[in-house]
Amino acid sequence: MTSDSDTEPAFWETKSLAELAPEEWEALCDGCAQCCLIKLEDVDTGERHLTRIACRLLDIGRCRCKDYDRRHRIVPGCVPISPETVGAIDWLPATCAYRLRGEGKPLAWWHPLISGDPETVHQAGISIRSWALSESGIDEDAAYRFIIRDPSV
Ligand code: SF4
Ligand code: SF4
């Protein structure tokens, strides 16, 4: 795969995650918003369970954070995903571009950097747009009812 021409290799193939410029790092995110789903932890076993409940700050229709610049201040549980932290995060979905590139795997056809179309991540059923529920309005005690299979495993 190439970026601008058949002779110019794509930045995500030639650079490691640590070598990416900030704008390249941001562009590598596919916009699936799977990382914005709420995870529940079993207090007895420490086992983590993924739900289809999305963070209250997520615009589900756009799969975009409503306040990206201030997200960590507004939502303390929002885990920073950066070149420094990504290697230690074990719950990113198998489709996550950071996880794929960290494992030396290629991006899929639906990734916007490959398709050239930000809609393909939704059309391919990778994003949470069509089935996530907002955390707002869901009783915390009822969250366990929304546990789903974890695509990171
Ligand atoms: S799971 Fe990965 S690719 Fe998808 S939105 Fe989160 S950081 Fe971006
Ligand atoms: S604060 Fe924003 S980026 Fe963080 S989990 Fe919530 S919606 Fe996602």
Q: Which features does this protein show?
A:
single chain; alpha+beta; 3-stranded mixed sheet; two-stranded antiparallel sheet; globular; binds iron/sulfur cluster
Listing every helix as H and every strand as E from the N terminus to the C terminus, the arrangement reads: HHEEEEHHHHE
- Which class do the helix and strand fractions yield? alpha+beta
Strand content: 5-15%
Number of helices: 6
Q: What is the mean pLDDT?
A: 93
- Tell me roughly what share of residues is in helical segments: 10-25%
The oligomeric state is single chain
The span between the termini is 27 Å
Question: Which regions are unreliable across 5 or more consecutive residues at pLDDT < 50?
Answer: none
Total domain units: 1
Bound molecules: iron/sulfur cluster
What is the alpha-carbon Rg in Å? 16 Å
Strand neighbour order, sheet with most strands: 1-2-5
**Count of beta strands:** 5
* Principal-axes shape call: globular
Main β sheet profile: 3 strands, mixed
